[in-house]
Design brief:
There is one protein chain. This protein is mostly helical and 283 residues long. It is built from ten helices and no strands. The longest helix has 34 residues, at 62-95. The two termini are 33 Å apart.
Length: 283
């Protein structure tokens, strides 16, 4: 049910952004890209996870495990960069409103989106290549819902130092720098909003970035808890639950946050529904 709801919710966002002219703006273009990433993420994980749960354990070939790990990494790294681009977009909209339209053109937004995808595919390729070269000659049972980095490293019988080093180095441009940029952007955004004298204008300005801030908080909280913060003392059950948060629940929550808290999307939903209901009655 969660998988079905997540896919339908994200497909709805993509469809509305595509057909509704009032949603043809940089912010909604990036939201649609986030929805594409969420569909890839949850589709990479959940179908196989359901098969494993229903059969009380299921074998997965090495190539399928590495492929799952690759697309999982691609989606996660892409989302790190995309959320950074979205924070930059909100920074320009609130702090540089007079220059916003001249900077965030359709061509520039397309280039930013393509760059995020290329960085995601490239970083995931490097990570996957290093992991796939490990030797797995011992136990071949992964005590997890999917092929994640930590469970794979735990069952490797060769030295994992290079992989740990590579992942640490990749995390600097893929996770640490985007986090710093997002924090700096929102510090500037909040400082500008607090200087607005009108309470109504202040609330309107904050509402334009509140949804993104909620999504960023959920995503980075789970990401740092599982991968960045040392996990000694963290039980396997807690690790699995946290993994479910960012692989299953986050793709479900994202479209809900952006739809329920966004008047433009709700207006597009009503307009599209009304249009097709009227056309259906005419037929």
């Amino acid at each position: 049910m969660v998988y079905f709801g997540a896919v339908c919710g994200n497909l709805l966002i993509i469809t509305l952004v595509s057909i509704s002219k009032n949603l043809h703006t940089p912010m909604y273009f990036f939201i649609s890209q986030l929805s594409i990433s969420d569909i890839i993420l949850i589709t990479t994980i959940v179908p196989k996870m359901l098969q494993i749960l229903l059969n009380s354990g299921e074998a997965i070939t090495f190539i399928n495990c590495i492929t799952q790990f690759y697309f999982f990494c691609t989606s996660e790294v892409f989302e790190c960069f995309l959320l950074t681009v979205m924070s930059y977009d909100r920074y320009l909209a609130i702090c540089k409103p007079l220059h916003y339209n001249s900077i965030m053109t359709n061509a520039w937004c397309m280039k930013l989106g393509i760059t995020c995808w290329l960085l995601g595919f490239s970083a995931a390729f490097i990570d996957t290549q290093m992991t796939s070269k490990l030797q797995f000659c011992g136990p071949n049972i992964i005590d997890h819902f999917f092929c994640d980095l930590v469970p794979l490293l735990e069952i490797a019988c060769s030295d994992t130092y290079i992989v740990h080093l590579g992942v640490s180095l990749l995390s600097i441009p893929a996770v640490i720098l985007p986090t710093i940029i997002i924090i700096m952007s929102y510090v500037k955004i909040i400082s500008v909003i607090l200087r607005i004298s009108s309470i109504t204008s202040r609330q309107k300005a904050f509402s334009t970035c509140s949804s993104h801030l909620i999504v960023v908080s959920i995503f980075y909280w789970t990401l740092f808890t599982v991968y960045i913060v040392p996990t000694r003392g963290q039980t396997l059950t807690i690790s699995k639950i946290l993994s479910l948060l960012y692989t299953v629940l986050t793709p479900l929550i994202n479209p809900i946050i952006y739809s329920l808290r966004n008047k433009d999307i709700m207006k597009a939903v009503r307009g599209t529904f009304h249009k097709y209901v009227i056309c259906g009655n005419c037929l």
